[in-house]
Amino acid sequence: MLYDAFDLQTDLAAQTRAWGRMLNDAWSPWIRWSEPARWMSANARMMMRAGLTFARPAYGIEAVDVGNRSVPVREEAVEVTPFGTLLHFKKDIHTEQPKVLMVAPLSGHFATLLRATVRTMLPDHDVYITDWHNARDIPVSAGRFGFDEYVAHLVQFLQTMGEGSHVVAVCQPAVQALVAAAVMAQAKDAAAPRSMTLMAGPVDCRINPTGVNELATSKPIEWFEKNLIATVPARHKGAGRRVYPGFVQVSAFVSMNTKRHVQGHTDLFWHMANGEDSKAEAIETFYDEYFAVLDLAAEFYLETVKTVFQDYTLAKNELRYRGAPIDLGAIRRTALMTVEGERDDICAPGQTMAAHDLCTGLAPYMRSHHLQAGVGHYGVFAGKRWETQIYPQVRNFIQAHN
């Protein structure tokens, strides 16, 4: 019923957007000469933004500067499974660059949320990304996708990329990246990454617990399954699949910072009304991404909540992968860097750094940690401080272990 109610709301939002387009077409020719017309056009454009979308936004990275020239970038699907694509941002250059697998979170948004992160890394690296698919559109016949299947995808993708790759995991998949590295180390897999950079990830949620952590422990896992899991309706390709809907997750994110989002939309209206197109476009671009939602397979969501946020299985080094125990101490040849934000209210300082205590087999010269002052969660991997202060250290770390 939860998903059916949302689909009804989506249909109503589509009608609102249609009315908004019609009104904007009517008023936009007069905005140069009439202030009321600008106000009406701005109202119409706000109507056009009603509702969420399940369509993956484009990465939109057509070219990057490498050295002193602009180099075209094209997206190439290297490997495709029902649940995700290993996407390569291919550049036609002769210089060999470090291969980096960017591991995107499965937390209600598409991997395109890391667009800025990818763009920053592309001039110096050969970048791949885990481009996860929307569970709403995956047929039940494709099978389950849980915690182990996520890890298996990382192992498979790294094997496809071949020896000498590096991993950069952002937020939630810091956990799965650690497990994948341990699995490959225990198997003596030649494709095990040379380094892994874990950015703002919940390795040990017992440290400085945030509101997100407290919510996860406030209810038994049965409550999450009963109240937050829905069945995909018949109108979608994944009909019958149990999912944690992206619209639920995004609603939770918005509720955590309601005032900020209300102010953001207020600012957007006035920028539109005042003809400040560049300022309006910046806000629109952010919310186009923020309100593009992706559903998670129910088993992945529930297993992650239970394993990472309730039982702290990884933090206790008690995790099992496909029934076999995983020893993070087996990681000896994959260098480790952790990055945290001083003001992160989703993954607090100390939670990611805990990975160093678990990776007991690493020599001191293979470890690095950076705490970035003045940034919250998203500032760790996007924005000016990411570009000017965090990224140079990540780049140097990868180069040092390439």
TrEMBL record:
Residues 200-401 form the PHB de-polymerase C-terminal domain. It comes from the Bacteria. InterPro entries: AB_hydrolase_fold (IPR029058), PHA/PHB_synthase (IPR051321), PHB_depo_C (IPR009656), PHB_depoly_PhaZ (IPR010915). PANTHER family: BLR0908 PROTEIN (PTHR36837:SF4), POLY(3-HYDROXYALKANOATE) POLYMERASE SUBUNIT PHAC (PTHR36837). This is Polyhydroxyalkanoate depolymerase. It comes from Methylobacterium brachiatum. The gene is phaZ.
